[in-house]
Amino acid sequence: MATPSGIPQIQDDSPLPHRVADQLCSMIISGALKPGSRLTNELELAKSLNVSRSTLRAALDRLASQGLVVRKRGIGTFVADEPLVTNNLSINFGVTQVIKSVGAKPGTAEVYLNVEKAGERVAERLELELASPVVVIERVRTADDRPVVLSFDIIPQSLLDTLRQRLSLDEIKQFLIKRQSLYALLIKQLGLEIDHGIARLHPIVAERWAAEKLGVPARSGLLHIEQVDYDPYGRPVMLSDEYHVANTFTFTVYRQGGLTLAACAPSEAENWEKWETIKIGVPTLITGHGASMGADILAGISMSVEKVNSEGGVLGKPLEMIITDTKESGAEECRLAAEFMSRSDVVANFPGAFYGPACIHEFGKYDQPLFHGSAIKETVDAVVANLPEYRNIFQVSASEESFGINAYEVMVNELPYDFPNKKAALLGGDITYDMLIKEGMRKQAEENGWEIVMDDTYPYGTTEFGAQLAKIRAEEPAVIFACITSVDTSVAFVNQFLQNPTNSLILIQWSPVAAEFKGLLAEKANGILWQTEYAYLPTPENQVWVEEFEAKFGRSPGAAWPAMMDDMLHIWKAAIESCGSPVDYECIYEYLENLSDHPYEGREGTYGMDPERHESLTGAEWIPIHVYQIQDQKDVLLYLGTDAFEGNSFQVPPWFQE
After folding, report:
1. Does residue 459 have a cis bond before it (omega within 30 degrees)?
2. SS (HEC) of 554-567
């Protein structure tokens, strides 16, 4: 059995388990502890190292997470076996050549190409302007059909445009599938000369997204190699990020002069104290049907970040936002956004909202906590079904099941209005959120003797309502409940309704929360009732905040998103300040799961968390449902839950006729 000598007294501030792990790591790298050898039992090993068993266990856990040792229950702890492939880092050649050099068959399991905007790190490494277009080539490389390397090769779009032969992204993809080697493409096919490369290496633990692609357990060890390739004139031409499976490659290094490889150095995340900024991600709805929502989300989070930074930042460091577009939040859009955020080294994500669970499944592969207010049961169910894997996902709102019930209770039982009949017309988009809320309203109405004269589900994004309005004008229902979450759609519906209105109350769910709704309709919006699960409360502090927002952006903040984003950011800020680190994710998860024990008093109410569903609590003492009426082109709060808000009163809509 392998028994190392005592641990030297290292004069630094790192925790003792880290120092023990570093010493054992150094002995593994040097060969003092042989691959495959069994360590002596924990009691003897702890004694020989002059540390407690708990310290030793913590050190071994650290080494196991890095893939340097293997713990076998009932047998013992072993140094990881001899790796499969050897790579000499003093020679600049690609993964394909490395795999071929040992007689293995190179392959590619996945190839994705995409054009992105260069973030800060990419721009710095490739000497580009920030946001310059770059081509990102993602591949899973295999040796004898076994995944061994996940790589991201990033090339300036401008460089590809100037080479002797222009290829489309699809042509590049087909070449790589057939020929494997990116160097062969650049040098032989496109005539690019590569002179040398400079690599940076550090061991990391596999986040869930990378572990899934490489077929290894989450938190197992990977070696990250970041390399910049240069042409003969010293100009950077390609940035590569390679993630190598532990126990697959042995790396030998030619050391010259004072150059050394810190093979057992802590990961970059563990050195967060050395960061100049703490990066947070905002993967949100910049284009598509949710663009108006995305504008409010970006405005709210940017104002909040600016305020936090003016007050000293978080843990003494300024925050830096990394932004990308999730468009319609489809599966591929979410995958690209999640991978981009991971490559950008963000420590938390604040998307605001998604349209469904696709982004939950993609961001759930990562460790960084994600805060969203989608208010969709389907997204919460996706988290619950995949806990603890998706432990990083938190919905900072309740789901939509109660919204339709609340809409019925307020409109029918609370409003001071005598209905001319008991007819209701319902319509909503063909997304789960709309349909569940509409179903709740329908069920309550039918149970209380109301006739549903129309229950229409339209394709999301529809802007033509001739058929539905013909039915409404024929039936003249007392109530129209429109679960319309798209601003363009709701504005179109109101405009078309007012061409020949009926004496019907209209309650629109959600979309009037965007300031754009009133901006587009102007005085036509007056009289509309609308509902949201979250909005800023009418407090003196919030009034000051509204005035600051209006001064900064020249418009109203809308009732919900800017305030919600401010609350999300501060909940996360409280969590990492409690944990003392932006990357102690286990501590951050625990803080958030137990938020009800230390509630956050925010702009929109009091935040608690259901620890089993990762979903915020709703109700009078938590985040109440709001019902407003637009009067004189302003949102007037009428009800919190089903309680009338003192000082405000309902007005009969101006389109009503005697």
Report:
1. no
2. CCCCCCCHHHHHHH
Phi-psi region of 11 (alpha: psi -120 to 50; beta: other; left: phi over 0): beta
Is the pLDDT score of 500 beyond 90? yes
Q: Is the pLDDT of residue 433 over 90?
A: no
Class of domain 278-398+547-616: alpha beta
> Which tokens belong to 264?
């057992």
Angle at 111 between CA 105 and CA 114, to 5 degrees: 155
Element (H, E) at 551: helix 540-553
What is the per-residue pLDDT for 65? 61
Q: Kindly give the pairing relationship between strand 393-395 and strand 319-325.
A: unpaired
Question: Mind listing the pLDDT tens digit for each residue in 532-564?
Answer: 888 999 899 999 999 999 999 998 888 889 999
Residue indicated by tokens 């981009």: 340
The CATH code belonging to domain 402-532+625-644 is 3.40.50.2300
Chain segment 388-399, per-residue pLDDT in tens: 889 999 999 888
Would you say 484 and 438 are in contact if contact means Cβ atoms under 8 Å apart? no
In the 3-class helix/strand/coil scheme, how is 489-525 assigned residue by residue?
HHHHHHHHHCCCCCCCEEEEECHHHCHHHHHHHHHHH
Q: Above 50 in pLDDT, residue 580?
A: yes
CA 95 centroid distance within chain: 30
Instruction: Determine how many CB atoms are found less than 10 A away from the CB of residue 598.
Output: 11
Work out the number of other CB atoms within 10 angstroms of the CB of residue 35.
14
End-to-end CA distance of the chain: 96
Residues of the chain with CATH 3.40.1410.10: 85-264
Tens digit of pLDDT for each residue in 4-49?
A: 544 444 444 456 777 788 778 767 766 678 878 888 888 888 888 8
16-79 architecture in CATH? Answer: Orthogonal Bundle (1.10)
Least confident piece of the model among 258-272, 411-425, 553-567: 258-272
Q: For the chain, give every residue range classified as CATH 1.10.10.10.
A: 16-79
Q: Please list the residue range(s) of the chain that carry CATH number 3.40.50.2300.
A: 278-398+547-616, 402-532+625-644
Torsion angle, CA of 241/245/250/251, rounded to 10 degrees?
10
**CATH 3.40.1410.10 describes domain 85-264:** yes
Task: Report the Cα 488 to chain-centroid distance in Å.
Answer: 26
